[in-house]
Fold each of these.
Amino acid sequence: QVQLVESGGGVVQPGRSLRLSCAASGFTFNRYAIHWVRQAPGKGLEWVALISYDGSDKYYADSVKGRFTISRDNSKNTLYMQMNSLRAEDTAVYYCARTVLYSAYANVDSWGQGTLVTVSS
Amino acid sequence: QSVLTQPPSVSAAPGQTVAISCSGSFSNLGNNYVSWYQHLPGTVPKLLIYDNNRRPSGIPDRFSGSKSGTSGTLGITGLQTGDEADYYCATWDSRLSVVVFGGGTKLTVL
């Protein structure tokens, strides 16, 4: 079965960096575009970033552009998010999520359980 | 403030029907499909509707979707207490080259 397992969350001070990982299994990872989506405490879902199946295309929300970098290693079936210059408003549960194959980018059919990032001094 | 506008909350009695709206603009809903997600407390979001009106396998036909112009609608018939959740619309914005979510609608089944 499809599995997406995030890791790397934790408590970090403002201005510092963190790298999230998402290990995929149960499907052919290198065929799918993958997202990071986050949910701040008490808030709605916020799309963060997207990477195409082969890593050639990357897209970012304005709120993280220039600070976050999405990447993938298809040989390891793993997605990454390098988060730099973290701010308090980046505090959220971060989900990695898979796009429906051969479908619009907004169609996401599988989600990981999420990893909590807390930015606090 | 979300690019896609949803009502913050809707409510209805068990067995009744509810519609949740999602309003956007030319660059997003006007030119791209709408998707809908259900997010139950303590769980991960679930895809309910994609490509405006298609249901993934396993989603009951009580859930339906439609789109007209720059607005999308999620319909739920035969409401059950288990349908209490937050519902989000989403689409691609062609001008911004981003995925956008609505602000979410909390459904209460009275």
Amino acid sequence: SYVLTQPPSVSVAPGKTARITCGGNNIGSKSVHWYQQKPGQAPVVVIYYDSDRPSGIPERFSGSNSGNTATLTISRVEAGDEADYYCQVWDSSSDHVVFGGGTKLTVL
Amino acid sequence: EVQLVESGGGLVQPGGSLRLSCAASRFTFSNFAMSWVRQAPGRGLEWVSAISGTGAYTYYADSVKGRFTISRDNSESTLYLQMNSLRAEDTAVYYCAKGGVSGSYYGNYFDYWGQGTLVTVSS
């Protein structure tokens, strides 16, 4: 089965740029979606189809995907961005949705 | 705005059964694939099952295949998850999630999620 690998944690100072990676075999050939989840809340999509941003999501959130790594980039990080972030793809070989293990973003 | 409201969670003994429901509103329910996603306490997201808009096609994670059954009633805009032979490892918050693009399950993302319903499997 397809596996997505995320770092368990990323720390960044306010105003700096956070990059959260999602590794997978030839993930660049798949569409990657990213979700933000704050404690006690349901996940919210922040990036879909690699780099599209839903309405209401700040332009500070962007995504890229190439080779074996997809990246969620959060510019000018704010305290309110502190959350867990999950990447997600659809695995065509199994017809399964796959989530990464999640990354806890800490704003220092 | 789209609304998804789950219900049916609770405490059940190992080997027991439970049926979850997700009432959907403010969108054309039959046009969208729907999924169940769960999250064990302190853990990450795990996709459980999905169903096409018509209900003709269903998909299951290996961990629940043969024990869980997903279904939908498009006339009532409601999604269901019948859970049998429950195990302690099925303890989680169960979310229903709506596909972001109409007509397709493949490659889709989830644009709306319910608030979740807690299932606890314990004796």
Amino acid sequence: QKEVEQDPGPLSVPEGAIVSLNCTYSNSAFQYFMWYRQYSRKGPELLMYTYSSGNKEDGRFTAQVDKSSKYISLFIRDSQPSDSATYLCAMSEGAQKLVFGQGTRLTINP
Amino acid sequence: ETGVTQTPRHLVMGMTNKKSLKCEQHLGHNAMYWYKQSAKKPLELMFVYNFKEQTENNSVPSRFSPECPNSSHLFLHLHTLQPEDSALYLCASSLPSEKETQYFGPGTRLLVL
């Protein structure tokens, strides 16, 4: 079993839709949860960072962590074509080793 | 230059060649990382350096040899690579006090023939 599971997609939605991206994990010691966005031919860009359980909102983006279910989500409201990218979840126990999901490829259609 | 830069952006090499990848960060960070990103696989951490000292080697084959001369520069020396080593090699950096928030460079796309 992989430590972090993420549906690779691809996921295609119309502009303006609410997008839900998810990851599950098996390591209960994970305390830090990140979402990265990676455009084609670019490096990953840190989008959201959450410590422990709860929600965090930043503009159109909301990150949720449910440690009891070992499940994290990223919601994108009013999705735009510029949101088209691969979204990577990443987790850490608190050391420098980040464990990444495979990434979900998202396309927002105008 | 700002952020994390990597050169070259693309590299094609034969299995008997020796080449080096370079990473430079302009963020004042003290920790630097090498990652490998292969198609349809998650990012894999290769090496971690803190204050120029290697603190993690994630069971990487010896044909990959990292070097960190100072906190701003990181190299990955490559020799006798295999075709399965073809991938995107990403460098990242962070502050030791904020080690979970890592900032990535654009990567070097490597093709081994």
Amino acid sequence: AQTVTQSQPEMSVQEAETVTLSCTYDTSESNYYLFWYKQPPSRQMILVIRQEAYKQQNATENRFSVNFQKAAKSFSLKISDSQLGDTAMYFCALFSGGGADGLTFGKGTHLIIQP
Amino acid sequence: EPEVTQTPSHQVTQMGQEVILRCVPISNHLYFYWYRQILGQKVEFLVSFYNNEISEKSEIFDDQFSVERPDGSNFTLKIRSTKLEDSAMYFCASSGTGGFAIDTQYFGPGTRLTVL
């Protein structure tokens, strides 16, 4: 069975600061994908960033970037120049196998951006 | 930008009643999913659907649940006899136009189900 662990239930930073959210995972598959999803108070799940396990280069999307350490099975999310709108639950998720597989989610980190 | 839509946004029902949650996946996507999130907990996979049949289901997806793609656009989740513990947010997701694009799942806004 595959697992995703997010060890930080809640984090709080000041606006414009940089924050890093941690995620570790475990899977026996060699081909897999990792995602960060954002869930604002509206509770909609919004894709933030994705990483293919076979790629060594860390994914980046504007202010969001990841630090993917395959050997350590670690997949952290860095948010630069944090904004009030970044306040949300952030879920790390793992996808492996064929297209019909469900995502395995972590328990989430509640990120609060203070003005 | 294409998106997954879900109706209704909020459904209130009495214990023992049947409910049907509806989803319209992104057109030309091939894989469809239902997830559930009990308040304050993580998102849990329920079922995946491909080529008009269930591909994978979790332990949560027991006989009281069923899914259907009644036409070319809708994807539904039916709960036959709701229980209090079915109260949750239900998310539909879709992915895959084929080839290498099968991995990223796009979620709908969710249906909040309240069982009284």
